[in-house]
Amino acid sequence: MLDTREALEQLHTLHDYVRWGASRFREAGLVYGHGTDNALDEAAALVLHTLHLSPTIPEPYWQARVTRSEGEAILARMQRRIDERLPVPYLTHEGWFAGLPFYVDARVLVPRSPIAELVDNGFAPWLDPDAVERVLDLGTGSGCIAITCALTFDHAEVDASDVSADALEVARINVARYGLERRVHPVRADVFEGLPAERRYDLIVANPPYVDAADMDRLPPEYRHEPSEGLAAGDDGLDVVRRVLAGAPERLAEGGLLVVEVGNSAPAVEAAWPQVPFTWLEFERGGHGVLALTSAEVTAYAAAFRAASDT
Hints:
Blueprint: H1 4-10, H2 14-28, H3 39-50, H4 68-83, H5 88-92, E1 95-97, E2 100-102, H6 115-120, E3 134-138, H7 144-152, E4 157-162, H8 165-177, E5 184-188, E6 201-206, H9 213-217, H10 221-224, H11 239-247, E7 252-261, H12 266-272, E8 279-280, E9 290-294, H13 295-300, H14 302-310
Parallel strand pairs: 3-4, 3-6, 4-5, 6-7
Antiparallel strand pairs: 1-2, 7-9, 8-9
């Protein structure tokens, strides 16, 4: 239990609370990865959100004094972060993707995909932004990929699909937040089953469950707060990926692009389809395990993808 009385007496500035919180987080052995990767940034994110401040503030503000009621609110959240091992975005109900904030809660995974960098770059060099008319965000969760794709391709229609009705409720909150109800369409679908018949897409972005059984068994408490159906994907992590690749030839438009995040299951993908020349993307801001296939490649290896899904 944190000694909040001493903290309230001794801590005065934003800087004080961030330093103290980082020390307590390290002392408690917390695990990061839901927007930050270290105790100091985790404490800063929690303090700034609690005080209704931007994630980036001018340097002099770090020395601004915190009122007692503000300090109590910060300490209460720090206590929950330690006691419950809740990721900060579940405490603040705010996650960030491609530089934009999104409402999140335990019905969806916390946004953290490196696909944000692809969105920022307009999926160059594969796509002409003016030629993208339809986008599918498969496994939309909070809707962050669908929404940022709609903002990037500003005349495209975007289907934001998910098998989880709870996740789609969160996605609708974010679609409304950005005023995109006319172009981003949350739809309940199990991979491609449930999408409008015969609809083809210029871009399919899939961030499906891809955590294998061994990694699921090793998940730290922070990750166990997330919906397991958004993570677990069988012994090798490819239960859903197989279906995505098998169905893509019928759904990807000519000249289109398929992007699939598979994370640590990338070696399993290469072992399952050694004949397929997957392009594994590199990211300046970190991240791995994201593959890209053109429509020509998806078509060329359609038989191999279908065969793997039937086994």
